[in-house]
Batch of 2 targets.
Target 1
Amino acid sequence: MEDFVKEILVTTEEIEAKVKELGEQITEDYKGKELILVGILKGAVIFMGDLARNIHIPVEMDFMAVSSYGSSSTSTGVVRLLKDLDCSIEGKHVLIVEDIIDTGLTLSYLIDNLKKRGPKSVKACTLLDKPDRRKTEVPVAYRGFVIPDEFVVGYGIDYAQKYRNLPYVAALKEEIYS
Ligand code: IMP
Ligand code: MG
């Protein structure tokens, strides 16, 4: 274990098994349908890459980037679109791929935004869910792990743009934040 890690919350093996299971479920649910995976940059990139390789039907992949206005602790639900999709989603089944759902405000914005573009359906898949801080009810069709209200990094998720490359999900030691 790296010396800046306080605790590993989800191991590499647990992630691997879960991503395989989610991929199988998505494969089953979207057979014969035109599916586009919409990954949310940058946190979902690693999850999306592994998930896509466990989905055994042809899929399209595209990405969006968003950021919340203000600091995350005073999140107002106002989300700024930094990068839009390259493709049209009209007539397609959309699966939003997220790293982590916390207040739910980002996902709620994304679902509303994408639903206006004429897709056949819009659903969401998240690796991690922190339900304790939820501010808005948001439908999640596929969920990897429910975790306690703790700030985590790894497997795509960052603190100040670092630690995305850890192959597991972990809490950092307190001194890293100070
Ligand atoms: P929400 O709008 O509050 O659900 O925010 C979700 C976004 O906040 C995620 O996509 C992450 O970018 C960020 N986030 C939430 N919790 C964590 C965490 O524990 N570590 C790192 N980023 C987080
Ligand atoms: Mg994110």
Target 2
Amino acid sequence: MGKSSIHRKYDGVCFAVTGAAGFLGSNLCNYLLEQGAWVLALDNFLTGQHRNIQDIKSRYPHQFFFADENIIEGIQQWDFFIAKNKLPHPKFLFHLASPASPVDFERLWRETSLANTLGLLKCFDWAEKFDTRVVFASTSEVYGNPAAHPQMEDHLGEVNFHGPRGCYDEAKRLGEALVYQMVNKGAIHGVVRIFNTYGPGMRLTDGRVISSFFQQVYQNNRIVVHGDGHQTRSFCYSRDMVRALLAYAYSGEQSPINLGSVEEVSVLQLAELIAQRFGNWSTTIEFAQRRKDDPQRRRPDLSRARDLLDWTPTTTLIEGLDLTAKYFYDGLKTETARVLHAQPN
Ligand code: NAD
């Protein structure tokens, strides 16, 4: 099957990933492929990037099998890939396919609602054939604007379901309820609650706070903070998150576990950090209207992740931003050149 004989951590293991062209999906695929795994991947490019997939395909032509499919319609090509390439049955299916940026929730409300519910049911159906464990990517958004801080897994959340984020938050909550029902019936599936994560592979203009700040500092030399900037977030670097997803999958845990960083910063502090480190003396910070239902405080309690998965993130925010900056700088430069080139003289 065209693989080298060097021993790597996941040599000979097959994984399945929906949302593979997205930020987390492509990082997960890359990590697994580097470690010798086979990866069955799926994405319909709703919010993902072709270049994430092209890059992986060219580097791992014999380990990576990609289906351009909508998860809502079920998984069609993976069985064929398994049979044709004599792959072992996949041990884990990571269901990551879903829009994930607040700016997309309103625009793609129908797709967001279905990817996390009907799409998840399609994953269960497919996984049943091979005894594959489904790991559902839930979110800190299930806590809404939380009354408890930091958030522990037993906090039931303060979600405004009649608001702009409602479709995302409630779809994830229903997804968790579906996992619960499957587990109750004997399935081996599980749920992770992912807090803000960032790194190379993000869509340059996806509207999430770190992407927006990089875009603004590099293209406009000014950063726009929504609200007074005192709202807090904690940002986890992608490589740490990938390690956490795998630790959870292998742990066999079935109840939800928070995954993220405990390094809490205010949005204003983040803006100042990015302005100082990646802007110049003339970079400005401006303020705009606060977004509706933007949570005031966000930080996971990671006790369960530490105890049950033996995992904590190791990349500091400054290290992670340094590792991410070049990706945004190069990507935005290429994008600007492409737009200028396309303009008539
Ligand atoms: P992303 O938008 O970069 O990736 C999602 C991928 O799913 C995209 O490639 C998109 O094209 C694909 N997709 C969406 N709907 C699909 C469908 N119906 N069929 C096939 N493919 C579809 O987002 P991400 O940041 O990589 O997030 C991945 C998962 O992690 C999502 O489920 C998200 O809710 C969850 N999550 C992410 C974060 C974060 O900070 N990145 C935080 C919490 C939860």
